[in-house]
Amino acid sequence: MEPGVIRKLDEVVVNRIAAGEIIQRPANALKELLENSLDAKSSHIQVQVKAGGLKLLQIQDNGTGIRREDLAIVCERFTTSKLSRFEDLAQIATFGFRGEALASISHVAHLCIQTKTAKEKCGFKATYSDGKLLGQPKPCAGNQGTIISIEDLFYNMPQRRQGLRSLAEEFQRLSDVLARYAVHNPHVGFTLRKQGDAHPALRTPVASSRSENIRIIYGAAISKELLEFSYRDDVFKFEADCLITQVNYSAKKSQMLLFINQRLVESTALKAAVDSVYATYLPRGHHPFVYMSLTLPPQNLDVNVHPTKHEVHFLYQDEIIEKIKQQVEARLLGSNSTRTFYKQLRLPGAPDLDETQAADKTQRIYPKEMVRTDSSEQKLDKFLAPLIKMESGVSLSSSQEAPPLPEESFRVTSAKKSREVRLSSVLDMRVRVERQCSVQVRSILKNIVYVGCVDEFRSLFQHETRLYICNTRSFSEELFYQRLIYEFQNLSEITINPPLPLKELLMLSLDSEAAGWTPEDGDKAELAASAAEVLLKKAPIMREYFGLRISEEGNVESLPSLVAQHRPNVAHLPVYLLRLATDVDWEHEARCFETFCRETARFYSKLDWREESAGAHSRWTTEHVLFPAFRKYLLPPPRLKEKIFELTNLPTLYKVFERC
Question: The DNA mismatch repair protein S5 domain covers which part of the protein (predicted)?
């Protein structure tokens, strides 16, 4: 057997092979030429198409144009104005850099360029074939900018032309490319028109916005559900600008517009990470709409890894994707506000749901994997709160703690109207809560089933097939803190009847061990008077923002209602008022709200366990008030992970039983 003879390919063959890698369909040619127009600082780009771009694909812009001297070599391979040395790739900030787009197009189509620069008195028109200029550029009239006309695409590659889809689908691909660049470049106006049609298929105005262009191109159903956020990371040196849909929107077709350093690219890993977050909220097989623009240091990005430039490689890819995933998770946690659900009644005689889903019956569920209870079930004692029998009319000065008040002493007054919070300090507190939320703990809390109280600090609950014990007081304190900042200025009030004298309450607090008073601190009466003066001075703030009312006569008239059916333990009220006077930073706004909310949350988290009847009421409150509120409201910070311990799980117990 004789070895084959190695020959050097003809230059025309080499160029057509390279062109086939870069220009795979009309949409690739459009992408390359759109990027050239954007590099030329165009403010308006018009695209005209015939037969899905195969007969005609024309791009007209009002950019800087091409110099007459450069027309001779503009369609030769590796001719570019973007770089001169290989090292320039490390700092490349433009779209094109290899100088292959126009050359590749000229090898697979008939190419005509008409251009005019600001310095020229007239424009020039040139035609090209196989990378060579045919004749000399001819003078012509025209406006500043460039018109590139591509005719008979793939006329010399019949296999490629036959392998393309229908003309309608190729036009849809062209439209999709233009739409993505229109969303990312709202300062540029884009127009797409089929030749012969009176109205454009797509048009966006100049100096628009991304959300407005999304509304124009993709529809109001998406634009009204958009959630916009930006994120900057100083560790991995990247910035992200995102527009993502809330969980009320979903579609069967996935749409992710990803730009990295202004380039339209694809990232399977990033798309999978975002989809995994939405999988918690959306039905199976449904996807969100996501626009994402990442900005990285140019030296961390390798743009020269694919002929069509639709892929890039960058440093710290896994870490950056994980950071973005965490940000999307944090934003989606509170985005259920517009979610709607629809219910359809089953028609008489229709089969049950289980009968129509025979495929699910083939999936065997083993006993050790069965969840033995349902978080949505209700118990009768939920509607039968235990009554607390207590004596009224006890003098405040007769004990070191305030006596428990009868139930009829409390009356909840709802907030008069919902007011919008504009204070930046409160809004920052909310953002901090949302960003610090532990997605893992939140996913557990969403479907917990209360089991029982161990003592005043600890409770048992079930999640799926696992049994946990948690610090109820720590969870309650965080819950009440968050309710204070999310219901800021809109809290309902618990009216105390009759009102309690402030100075006597403060004297009681100084008599208690919790206050830690010593003779060196001074006279109790003077200390109580000083604390009362502070609270009376700050009473308007507490009344306006938190619903805690102290009258001018010095009587405590109401407390804030943080969770429905929850009443604070008045036995701890004296110490709470003393701490408001001494431990709250009343001088600085942000610190004031933070310390006030923390002290109030600490007070509300202490239930009454002193007597049997009070303990029964506290157990009822824990099961039917606090745990439902955990499921509904609580965004747990990471530190609460340390307050949850897994005791056992069903698979482990089955292993023990099997050994027996």
Answer: 214-333
